[in-house]
Amino acid sequence: MSERVYIFDTTLRDGEQSPGVSLNVEEKLRIAQQLERLKVDVIEAGFPVASPGDFEAVKRIADEVRGLEVAALARANQRDIDTAWEAIKRAASPRIHTFIATSDIHLKYKLRKSREEVLELAVSAVKHASSYTSNVEFSAEDATRSDLAFLAQVVEAVIEAGARVVNIPDTVGYTVPHEYERIISYLKEHVANIDRAIISVHCHNDLGLAVANSVAAIRAGARQIECTINGIGERAGNAAMEEIVMILRTRQDVFPYHTEINTRQIVPTSRLVSHLTGMVVQPNKAIVGANAFAHESGIHQDGVLKERSTYEIMSPEDVGWSKSAIVLGKHSGRHALKAKLEELGYHLADEELDRVFRRFKELADKKQEIFDEDIEAIVADEVFRLPDKYELKYLNVISGTTTIPTAMVEVSIEGQGTKRLAGFGVGPIDAAYNVLAQITGTASRLLRFSVTSITGGTDAQGEVTVRLEEGGQVVMGQGADSDIIVAAAKAYLNALNRLERLKKKNERQVQGMCPAKV
Ligand SMILES: CC(=O)SCCNC(=O)CCNC(=O)[C@H](O)C(C)(C)COP(=O)(O)OP(=O)(O)OC[C@H]1O[C@@H](n2cnc3c(N)ncnc32)[C@H](O)[C@@H]1OP(=O)(O)O
Ligand SMILES: CC(C)C(=O)C(=O)O
Ligand SMILES: [Mg+2]
């Protein structure tokens, strides 16, 4: 049997640090439950001291998602660690993840501390965390720009203090594969007690090398990989889990290691994360992009038809692309819909299934064949988007060659009832957006608007993605519908709802509502 590599998923912590992404407690819980189905080893559920919402989300995940380790992040100080522990203490297997930077550049400009002070803070943080649990991880932030001898000194000291996992992050995505391999090898050679801990790596994608660096580190001895679904995360993102897992699986000849990931859950997880975060997956993205297994040119098609392995190195079914026998349409019932949803990785409660079924029937009346993507769009809309401040209740748009485009809109606003207004624009979407902007009183600017067809044909569902900016905050919004103008209105409101959530989160931080003592 090959050696095991542990998968530490940080979609809910570093992934949520993607600009414009803010997940509510329900959304985080859904993703955590899906990560459990995917069989990751550890999830980093959040940074509990960051906000009451993050604290609550980590706590709910720790209480309700029992089949994996739940980690919480904490700076190297007592209050962060106490708060992290408070949030995860009821988890089936809790882990405190504490960190401090070790590079001179971070010490000098950010922490304003000497190496001696940082060493002491690291050790006392790990000792304090160890007073709660033996499952403590320490990260040396910006490790790849740190002096190697000092890095080795810190790593040795934190292992001595009780760290069970030592993470060597490439925080700013600066290293390259052969250099990273050398850093990990150096630590293996120069840290006397290194065999008492698992070496972990956490790579960012600033130079597009996060995945390459992660697998290089495995060659040198790392046995835990920190990564995110779809590679989302701070700036250019983190290493994409699906890519790392499939590299190990596909290239066993080069990497004789395995993970316990249920690869068939990869695509459903990717879609769920994309829908809930609003981070669209580019079509040419490896493994989970819409084109990842599509063959366009004749020579390739001919090859694949004769023998699939001529142009496919993995099987699409292995990563969860479905070739289902269940075709959904207007005559399908609840059982078929439930079976299809489960095949796609969605395990809904009865009441949620009822809501999705109602929407499914409405769509089936308008559309001949319902595709997987249609179902996912409905689930995203019906089940995951809550609680929102704005909800579209009614939209009627008139446009054509001889009419001034006019929109009549009704929106329900949390705590204010419904508001109704009509207005004009240069086109139907412009008219709808003008009215929505007036109803909501938003001061945001539309930075980008894009439409894609989720499925083929003129009866396809359209998906609209927008990017809005307000006060320096940028958010994305998505909406899907068989009517493109309705999809556009939903996307706009979805982005406004995200902005509202970000505003609330920021207000709480400014007011210092983070749980000082919990
Ligand atoms: C590499 C990473 O991804 S690290 C994780 C980054 N994630 C986040 O920052 C998201 C959540 N963060 C937050 O909500 C806020 O930053 C909070 C609540 C954690 C802290 O807020 P504030 O107390 O207002 O501090 P602020 O964020 O402005 O500054 C960070 C402070 O922490 C210190 N600090 C940074 N890292 C560490 C660390 N690992 N250990 C101890 N102190 C640290 C900084 O030096 C600075 O201290 P100072 O106020 O004495 O100068
Ligand atoms: C907190 C640490 C692990 C981190 O996110 C980084 O260094 O990038
Ligand atoms: Mg990071």
Automatic annotation (TrEMBL):
<dbReference type="Pfam" id="PF08502">
    <property type="entry name" value="LeuA_dimer"/>
</dbReference>
<dbReference type="InterPro" id="IPR054691">
    <property type="entry name" value="LeuA/HCS_post-cat"/>
</dbReference>
<dbReference type="GO" id="GO:0009098">
    <property type="term" value="P:L-leucine biosynthetic process"/>
</dbReference>
<feature type="binding site">
    <location>
        <position position="204"/>
    </location>
    <ligand>
        <name>Mn(2+)</name>
    </ligand>
</feature>
<keyword id="KW-0963">Cytoplasm</keyword>
<dbReference type="GO" id="GO:0030145">
    <property type="term" value="F:manganese ion binding"/>
</dbReference>
<dbReference type="InterPro" id="IPR000891">
    <property type="entry name" value="PYR_CT"/>
</dbReference>
<dbReference type="InterPro" id="IPR050073">
    <property type="entry name" value="2-IPM_HCS-like"/>
</dbReference>
<dbReference type="Pfam" id="PF00682">
    <property type="entry name" value="HMGL-like"/>
</dbReference>
<keyword id="KW-0028">Amino-acid biosynthesis</keyword>
<feature type="region of interest" description="Regulatory domain">
    <location>
        <begin position="391"/>
        <end position="518"/>
    </location>
</feature>
<protein>
    <recommendedName>
        <fullName>2-isopropylmalate synthase</fullName>
        <ecNumber>2.3.3.13</ecNumber>
    </recommendedName>
</protein>
<dbReference type="InterPro" id="IPR002034">
    <property type="entry name" value="AIPM/Hcit_synth_CS"/>
</dbReference>
<dbReference type="InterPro" id="IPR036230">
    <property type="entry name" value="LeuA_allosteric_dom_sf"/>
</dbReference>
<feature type="binding site">
    <location>
        <position position="238"/>
    </location>
    <ligand>
        <name>Mn(2+)</name>
    </ligand>
</feature>
<keyword id="KW-0100">Branched-chain amino acid biosynthesis</keyword>
<keyword id="KW-0464">Manganese</keyword>
<comment type="pathway">
    <text>Amino-acid biosynthesis; L-leucine biosynthesis; L-leucine from 3-methyl-2-oxobutanoate: step 1/4.</text>
</comment>
<comment type="function">
    <text>Catalyzes the condensation of the acetyl group of acetyl-CoA with 3-methyl-2-oxobutanoate (2-ketoisovalerate) to form 3-carboxy-3-hydroxy-4-methylpentanoate (2-isopropylmalate).</text>
</comment>
<dbReference type="InterPro" id="IPR005671">
    <property type="entry name" value="LeuA_bact_synth"/>
</dbReference>
<keyword id="KW-0479">Metal-binding</keyword>
<dbReference type="InterPro" id="IPR013785">
    <property type="entry name" value="Aldolase_TIM"/>
</dbReference>
<keyword id="KW-0808">Transferase</keyword>
<keyword id="KW-0012">Acyltransferase</keyword>
<dbReference type="InterPro" id="IPR013709">
    <property type="entry name" value="2-isopropylmalate_synth_dimer"/>
</dbReference>
<keyword id="KW-0432">Leucine biosynthesis</keyword>
<dbReference type="GO" id="GO:0003985">
    <property type="term" value="F:acetyl-CoA C-acetyltransferase activity"/>
</dbReference>
<comment type="subunit">
    <text>Homodimer.</text>
</comment>
<dbReference type="GO" id="GO:0003852">
    <property type="term" value="F:2-isopropylmalate synthase activity"/>
</dbReference>
<feature type="binding site">
    <location>
        <position position="202"/>
    </location>
    <ligand>
        <name>Mn(2+)</name>
    </ligand>
</feature>
<dbReference type="GO" id="GO:0005737">
    <property type="term" value="C:cytoplasm"/>
</dbReference>
<dbReference type="Pfam" id="PF22617">
    <property type="entry name" value="HCS_D2"/>
</dbReference>
<feature type="binding site">
    <location>
        <position position="14"/>
    </location>
    <ligand>
        <name>Mn(2+)</name>
    </ligand>
</feature>
<comment type="similarity">
    <text>Belongs to the alpha-IPM synthase/homocitrate synthase family. LeuA type 1 subfamily.</text>
</comment>
